[in-house]
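Purpose: get a first structural picture of the assembly so the mutagenesis plan has something to point at.
Setup: three entries, given in the order below. No constraints added.
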Amino acid sequence: MAGTGQTIRTSRPVLSAGIRSFTFHGDAAPALEAVDLQVVPGTLTAVLGPSGSGKSTLGRLLADWLPPEGAGTLEGFLELAGTRLQFRGREDPRINPAEWGRHVGFVPQDPAAVLSTVRSTVAEELAFSLENAAMERPAMKAAVEHSAALLKLTELLDRNPAGLSGGQLRRLAIGCAIISGPEVLIMDEPFASLDSAGAADLALLVEDLVRRGTAVVVLSQVVDAPLLAAETWIVLARGTVTASGPPVELLGQGQLPSGIRSSGSGPAAEPGVHQPAKAPDTVPRAPVLELRGVSFDYRPANRTGRRRRALREATGSDRRGHGVLSGIDLKVRPGEIVAVTGPNAAGKSTLLRHVNGLLRPTAGSVLVHGTDITGAPAGETARSVGLLFQQPRDQLFERTVLREVQFGLDRLFHPGEAAARALAALSAVGLAAAAPRHPAELPASGQRLLALATVLARKPSVLALDEPTVALDGDGLALLDAAVRSAAGEGAAVVLVTHDLDYARATAHRVVTLDGGRLNG
Amino acid sequence: MRLHPLTSLAAAGSTAVVTTAAASWPLSVAVMGAALAVSVRVGTARRLLPAAAVVLLPLGLSLLMVHGLFFPEGRTVLGQWGPARVTMEGLAFAFERAAQLGAVVLALLVFSFSVSVPDLVAALSARGVHGRFAFVLASTLTLLPAIAARVERIRQAQESRGLVIRPGLLHRAAAFRLQAVPLVLSLIEDAGTRTAALESRGFSNPGPRTSYREVPDSGRQRVLRAVLAVSAGAAVAARLWLSRAGG
Amino acid sequence: MSSPSLTLPSPAPAAARKRRLLEILGAVAIAGTYIYLVLNQPADITGGPGSASALIALSGFLAGAILLIVAVLPTLPASTVVLIPVALVLNIVLGQFVGSTLVPFYLDAIGTVLIAVLAGPAAGAATGALSSIVWSFFNPTVLPFAAGAALIGCLAGLAARHGMFRRFYLAPVAGFLTGIIGGVVSAPVAAFVFGGTSGVATGAIVSAFRSMGDTLLAAITKQALISDPMDKAIVFTVVAILVYALPGRARLQFPFIRRYRVLAGQAPKQGC
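Result (structure tokens, whole complex):
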């Protein structure tokens, strides 16, 4: 297996595709057009593209996670292990998903969606595909142990998959994809939302798989450090390939669109966009937001146990006793941008949910404009505090983008002003042209920006952002940056939590670290 | 001894059928007592009693109201207020029905609160066409808490956007729409991804399957299951035959 | 070991025939039980509990529901099978939410009707029956209503196939009619198996009819005709709101929706 780079280069592709076009049912324009690619064993291929460029669609088509006969109309061919399937849009071959899955493993962006929901331990979840292939139990046990060791899941084999943390879930999802030894492994944004330790582990795993002869394909809108080692980059924009070749070539020619971010900071194409943040005017002003000795833990105390548990699962941060806060003091003045960093599951999201009263501190108090918000419904506090969640789709519920931003504005402003504000907020995040579209059909980056617009339109005096870099592509991040700066410029206090220390340093006036439930810095 | 899940299912189901067929209140009361004893013995009584109460109290009250107060067929009148007429026959009917249903409900709940769902799924999956039913059962039980947590998360996200749920039917209906739309949309999207994940892992394979989880079974339990099934069938047949013979 | 093909063969017609046979058997079992119970009006209903009629109602309806599941479940595409548990949870979760606000209804079929609209009558029937069977894990008293729930799912799917969801105002009408049929079919179960109803509010309505001298079956059927049509009209309306709120791509991934043009091309321009 271990060959030199030269022999690998010349070996035949295991998976190749020639997609003339792929159109979803009901769409007028194709989602993919003129995309050709070949995947060679023992190599790493990176498909880079901004949000909405068709990366996930391509990845899912290659892995048969988007069966061409059901989801839309495919014209072109897919070739796997020497078998070429030709698609014309009618009387097409129906792919056998189980057999395809034995050759091509896929790990989607949201690893929780992979879980079968019918297996009660990590070991059984891993074994699911082997059970369905009628493998004998001893062989199955050996395979599970082998994969678990590879993914550092051995300690977790008897745990319930529903209780795993985000990083553990991603490892499990990869394990489920590779346990049957596929020749190709496709991963969609695998490095997103992993902290540095998690990302390093994953990079090692990818290296190891490539060395063993697997063809690894990573779909990403960020040029994460491990992708610099890829043999080939394929750049996608608006559903078509705009450039491909070795990374050195593409970087040298400056062929990456601005939507693609380099790891950790803003748009790759504009490294100078981040001026060192200037502190706001030095005149001491009263803080807009103040946390005084805030402590919190999820001990089921006063309220009913079930509600607490639902809350804990809802915030997702507390799975093994994390998410507790002890004695947090924080003051944010108008115009100030404060970043809270810390490792995954340090309780950052929990802290942010205190800012608008979604969670009540077990001790201490939260003041907005000098008024204690404890006890006020979060819906009322939302007049002055805007919170951008990590997962935008929970926040969106209207049929069109414009209605989404207008929601609730009429109760705050005159009808005319409400409409003007909605449009202004939409153009601030670059979505003015998307006003009549369905929010759920925007790409992930667009959905987050829309959620941001709904917050900005209300002109909150406190802006709280949960992991703003996640799911935003380069252009989106630049828009977000501009919007946040302009909000701060108009006097809003901004608190953002992020695991991305570089981004925090580049954006905020002040960076504090949350670890072990305490704030440092 | 650890019972095979299908053995406990057969025991509970057979008890329920025989009790219904026998339709004799002393037997019903005895079955209720036995079910409670088993539940205390296996340590599920704490969870079982509230669940049983939620089902049986409204049912019992409803029966008491319908038959205790209005039973036109009743002859022995105990008291009368306007149209309401308390009769001996009505009360007896309500009591007998309540006892019979209580016995059936308790017998089945003892099973569902003591069975290990993963074992039950493994036992069903090993048996061909039942695989899909096992999937539906296990997946529902897994999704129930997860979706309840998602409803909570959506509520939080929307409150953060300034949604205040006011009392009143219309406000609540509007709030319901706002919360149900993102819930259903995200659930359908997730189901699509889960389908692809399951399919690529051989969910629809036509061939034989194996099971990673071991569920011990024995010849004696197999015989016991057969006996239980036959006795349930015999009870039904006997009841039908008796009623035919009796006119 | 032979190397299996990367493509699937086209489905065999023999399997379809077997499925059709089981479906018909299930429907016959349910219909036969209902007709027997109504024609014979067993005298022993209030004469003594227990009894043959309860057993006939139970076994006939349950056997029919199980036959339907056995016929339909293995033939459904995986995408529908994966949605069924979601629908069952929606039956419970959404039912609870609405149930806490609109008291006299059950609203426990939102998920079932949603599946029926997205995936067709067979899927709807299986979902309805499975909903009762799985829910009986926590509440065994819903088990006998499996046949009625299957009927609701099937009728909802037929309504969707014949365009009742293409116009927004037709959905509650379809729901109302479905409720009438569903209520009439479920009434014998309540009468013969429970000797009443499982809730206090519905029990009060039954009491009222009994006080006017109705037989138990008549009283419960009348109660069902008061509650069920309104209940299902609300459920169908809720489902129409939900499916029209879905983005086009999410709707059109369902072959049933594409094939029978279940939904209007454009979402209706009304603001609810």
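The first helix of chain A runs from residue 5 to 10.
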